[in-house]
Task: inverse folding
DNA sequence: TCCTATTATGCAACTTGTTGCATAATGGGT
DNA sequence: ACCCATTATGCAACAAGTTGCATAATAGGA
């Protein structure tokens, strides 16, 4: 499970509150690991119980906003977890199941859906390219920046793959297409 | 959720029992959608309750093996589900979280793990190439075969991407490497 | 024949993630 | 002053997948 460690990473980058974390999970971190506000609040509480983070300004000025900060034990745990070795998770994609179903029960509307996915992946790709242009076009490359760029490149590669694959799939599904299988 | 429909697809390809399904989920179908025997037995029962499959030879010759067969309602449901439209699931990869953690807490043992992953992905890639050679080297292309080939190609593309990415990541992580950040 | 490994089935408890709803507080418009 | 949209936090129930264990039956070897 990655959520606690994703939270630790985000809080090390900058201490903040649950709702701010939720916002950040809709952007950068969330491109590769999503979490709802529910998961975040639940997990922050757990991290606090474990002594990995601590809440600042428990009931501060306006609102009830509570910022969290990583404690040394949390930083140590993050380091341990990051260096741990794991098996690569196998692929798991519903689209593949649906393509195999198509193969068995003949033509369906699947091609329409894949056309729509193609659009979604093209959008993501454009977004990632824009971010790359904005954040990584100059050549200043600290280790930190190189690693963040690397993660973005994974997104670029993955979306490119999906765009290619959707096009291939559409070609196959349309070949003996809507009219004459 | 794809499991019930993955099971329907597998049972349409060939009716069989829970344990046989588990075996098939370790091979072909399981390359893209994994399931434990627990999930399979639990789900088969549910599919039977829904009237989508029916059990043959309820307590046949040897063992207690019970083969399941898809009913017309199950076939209809599979068709409906296959044509349904969905949002593309966003990327979700623990490795990206760990790379971002690396960026924040400085050098860790992560590069060792990525080297090991590289090996795993190279193995998968070799396996998929072998399957492609064995099953798809002649040019006889029915719609069914083309679709199955397409799914395999997704696996080939994905593993190729991972191999490339692991090599890139190792390069970045080793650059200011173990000795001198 | 008996022992054991393998195959086949299943329950129960747990983890992770999702959904729907509830509540509190603030700030801006009227 | 009052209403209301927004922000921030949280509970409870559910859904999906995992893990550990249990049980039955048969096949094959000692």
Result:
């Amino acid at each position: 499970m990655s959520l606690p460690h994703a939270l630790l990473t985000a809080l090390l980058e900058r201490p903040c509150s649950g709702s701010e974390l939720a916002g950040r999970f809709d952007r950068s971190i969330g491109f590769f690991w999503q979490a709802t506000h529910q998961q975040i609040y639940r997990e922050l509480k757990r991290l606090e119980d474990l002594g990995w983070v601590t809440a600042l300004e428990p009931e501060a000025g306006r609102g009830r906003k509570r910022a969290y900060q990583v404690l040394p034990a949390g930083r140590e745990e993050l380091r341990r977890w990051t260096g741990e070795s794991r098996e690569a998770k196998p692929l798991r994609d519903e689209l593949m199941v649906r393509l195999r179903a198509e193969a068995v029960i003949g033509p369906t509307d699947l091609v329409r859906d894949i056309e729509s996915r193609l659009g979604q992946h093209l959008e993501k790709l454009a977004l990632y390219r824009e971010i790359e242009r904005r954040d990584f076009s100059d050549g200043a490359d600290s280790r930190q920046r190189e690693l963040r760029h690397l993660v973005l490149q994974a997104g670029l590669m993955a979306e490119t793959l999906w765009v290619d694959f959707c096009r291939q799939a559409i070609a196959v599904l349309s070949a003996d297409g809507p009219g004459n299988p």
Summary: Confidence is low (pLDDT under 50) at residues 177-181 of chain A. Chain A has seven helices and three strands. Chain A touches chain B through 73 residues (CB under 8 Å). Residues 17-19, 22, 37-38, 41-42, 45, 63-66 of chain A lie near DNA strand D (CB under 10 Å from a C1').
